[in-house]
Each structure stands twice: as C-alpha cells, then as structure tokens.
Amino acid sequence: MARSFLQAASADEVQHPPPFSIVQIEGLVILKIIKHCKEFSPTLVTGQLLGVDVGSVLEVTNCFPLPIQEDHQDEEIEDDAGAKHQLDMMRCLREVNVDNNTIGWYQSTILGCFQTVELIETFMNYRENIGKCVCIIYDPSRFNQGVSALKALKLSDSFMDFCRNINFTGGKLKKKNLSWADVFEEIPIKVSNSALVSAFMTELEPDTPVSQYDYDRLQISNNPLKRNMELLIKCMDDLSIEKQKFQFYCKSLARQQAEQQEWVQKIRDENKARKAAGQEPLPEEDPSDPIFQTIPEPSQLETFLITNRIDNYCNQIKGVTAENLIGRLNLMKAFHDN
Q: CB neighbours (10 Å) of residue 15?
C-alpha cells in the first residue's frame, strides 16, 4: 500500500484511537468482495474499504478493487500508479456523495495463508495515518467448501505497541510476555441490510424441491485435507529453517563469549607483567576487535507468523476431518434406521 495515498487521504493523524469491537458490513459490500476475489482466483487481489467510524462499531459501507500488481513493472512506479488510482476513485465517490473515508482494505487468500510480514507493515502504515483500520480476509477455497470465508482482522494493541519501538528478539518478547497468538485479533462481523433489501430477499426465496446443487453440498472430498497437509508440511520446513537460524546465532554467541574470555585472560596475564615492570595496564576490551562487536539476534517475527499459519492449517484439518467423520456417521445411522 503506497504511503503517499494514506498520507493524502487522512486529514489528521490519530495517535491513540479508541478501540472498536464490531465490524458492520453491508451485504452489497460482501457481494462486491466475493465477486472480485472469485473472478481472479487463484490470483490474490486486494481492494479498499470505505465507511464510517461510529464509536465501538466500524461500519463498512462501500469498497472498490485495486489494480493487480504486475511482476515485470517497477515497484515504485506501480505504487505511484496505485496511489493515483485510489485518490481518483475516492474523488469520484465524494462527488456523488458516497462515503469515501478509508477504514482499511480487503484481500483474498488461499486456505488462510495470510500471515505475512507485508500484512503487518500495511497495518502499521494504516494505523500511523488513519488510526482505526481493519483488514477483511476472504478465502474463495474455503467458501467453496461451505465454510464461512470472511474474517475481520486487526493487530492486537499489545503487539502494535511492541513492534512500534522494539525489535523482535526472543528476550524482549519473553519480557513483554507476548506469544504468536497475540499478533492478530479477530473482530466479529455483523452483516447489515436495509429493510427494503431484506424484504426483497424474502420475496426472492424459492419454493422449489431439492436440486442437484443441494446434493452436491453433501459430497465428501479429501482435496482440502490434502492441500492443507501439503501447506502444513511446508510451514514445518520453514519453521525448521528459522530454528536453524536461531541455533546458529546461539553457537556464534557462545563462540564469541569463549573468545572474549580467552582474550581477557590473556590481557590480564600481560597486565600483571606490565604492572611488575611499572608500565601502564592495557584495556581488557578492544571495541575495534570483531570479538567484542555485538552479534545481532535474529528476529522472531517470521517464527510468530509461521506458527500462526501452522495453527490455522491445523484448525482447518481438524474441521475437515470432523465434518467428514460426522457426515459418514450420519449416513451410517440413516442406513441402519432404514
């Protein structure tokens, strides 16, 4: 997300906005998000959310898609073009008296794989410029399985305050008592429709017998389970790589400490001889020597995000297997009863 657009779209920078507990989305906005994400699936897309902030409720009243980024284009030029597109869209909406206040963005995902460093950076960017913000995650693959595919997310306040000023090192994370489960916070979604729309939808309800589509929803497929298992294995490999990085850091730190102790002991022995000879003692530490330079501790942010993805895939596998088992048990019970 281009920073220039957010700075231009926000009138005042809100340092400590009051929290919100509900995201209220109009039904038309949900349909727009679903249509945009499904049209370009499996390509990941994103869009802008517009609405108003009413106390503890963040109302999403409109949205529009953003251009898909091309791999061959220059990133800086593409960001400027995206910012210009967003400003032009919001200017047009303002001219027709439609809500044009930026309150976040939506994006598609595949099997819930949305926990990335880029997502956190976008959250920080929005928070610094417009205060309250929310990200709507839509998963077309989950929607096809008959599962609720919409999630409203924000960064937790504790994690936001931590990552604004401090690096993601293990010791500081432990001191703040933060875990991987404290990164994101899911906000309840409330769907809102006008009375006229609700009445119209009631009139549209068909009074027809069961169709083939209704039977297709009873089909038990192992494809989601297989794909989740593949992604889970990949996450475990990524977690192993992060673990190896931290182990290498620990070994390098232990080696450096051993070299420092050996150096200090050598200088102390030499200082004893210099003291006996009436000479000035040498300093025990030499800042220019590489063995006294601090080894940077690797960031634990990627480990947190990978652990979040592992938890997500495990929950999806649990849900798929439970649905399959319950479906089979119900079928067997129906056969026995008949």
A: 8
